[in-house]
Amino acid sequence: MKSAIVKLIWISILFVSVFFVACSIDKTTFAQYEINGTVRDAATNLPLKKIRMIRLGTDYLLYSDTIYTDSIGKYSFTLTDYYAKNATFSLKIEDYDAGLNGGEFATQNVNVKFSASDWSYVDIVGDYKGEATKNQDFQLTKK
Question: Which residue has the higher pLDDT, 139 or 56?
């Protein structure tokens, strides 16, 4: 009986040790990405307020991100997703207010691609160690 208890304790210690080692091997599974910029009228270069921006390409409800530009056309997405050194996010940019922002603008589908220079911290071998930020401005044309 005593031998069985000792054996169970050792198995438990081994299991816990393997669990903690496995959890600490890859701390870069997820990354935080920020995409920000300004949306402007292509003809006048004026900022566009109330433009809807939707992250596309995911079926997972957590990632159904939608934001709107502010009164001076600025936007900022903060996304947590699986780490990829050259991650690409698809966005749909659309005017939804039927002309209240100075016109009716055509919808655009765009890809925003991150590169090594967008990472806030990269170690000597180029592995992810933090966040990535991409400044991306867009221009919309009237319908």
Answer: 139
